[in-house]
Amino acid sequence: MSNAQDKDKAAAPVNVKLLLIGNSSVGKSSLLLRFSDEQWLPEDESSATIGVDFRVHKMDVKGKKVKLSIWDTAGQERFRTITSSYYRGAQGIILVYDVANRESFDALPKWFAELETYVSSAVVKIIVGNKVDKEYSRQVPVSEGQAFATRMNALFVEASAKTAVGVQEAFRDVVERIIDTPELWQSAGARKSRSGGAGAGAGGQDMPGSIDLRQEPEEAEGGGCGC
Ligand code: GDP
């Protein structure tokens, strides 16, 4: 019997929940689209914020099958209404700034402060300096981004959702670090089974509309966007 259980364990994917956060328009949705759909919407076709909200992506990392659920704020940050439920169950956080927009970099401490409130310190963080294709208008030197990440005990990569440079690397780096930290995903599994699988996203079952904009997840059942 225990043999069968072992087999089940080996076959079951590790569920990992990642969140994208950062100021509006830094390219969170674009990074998610680039990573999960290998897609780029030209600037003139995308509104200021594209507003993707949820993607599931499977990958093999360090010999393990990983089922990633990746959540985007879908513009919630514009209204300062990111709720605690958005953060619940996350094992990895991708903090994005725009290398051509200093204000978005200077906002990172505020985002870290919010993280301190909502997630455990063991959660893996990566800082992504996006839009590196705009080298001509860079406002944040790579050394400054790297130094800040080191200080905050976060991984760091510069990327461009437009050219795809650094994007795979960003997601892979954070997932590898999570896989290297079994207490993150093993406890997530335990949490999930305790709650009957109704957790906020780690199981990949949730629909985009279940982002809890109103603290009333049941109301969002139809998948409609509350924004
Ligand atoms: P979000 O609000 O953080 O989700 O940002 P979006 O993904 O909606 O992107 C905001 C704007 O920045 C859009 O016009 C995108 O086309 C543009 N953008 C996103 N990523 C990049 C990038 O890597 N390079 C350039 N040049 N523009 C980008």
Automatic annotation (TrEMBL):
Which keywords does the record carry? Answer: GTP-binding, Nucleotide-binding
Transmembrane spans: none
One GO molecular-function entry? GTP binding
Whether GTP-binding counts among this entry's keywords is yes
Per UniProt, the ranges with Gly residues bias are 196-206
- Residue segments, region Disordered: 188-227
PROSITE patterns with a match to the protein in the record: RAB (PS51419), RAS (PS51421), RHO (PS51420)
* UniProt-listed InterPro entries: P-loop_NTPase (IPR027417), Rab (IPR050227), Small_GTP-bd (IPR005225), Small_GTPase (IPR001806)
Give the protein name, as stated in the record: Transporter
Taxonomic lineage is: Eukaryota, Fungi, Dikarya, Basidiomycota, Agaricomycotina
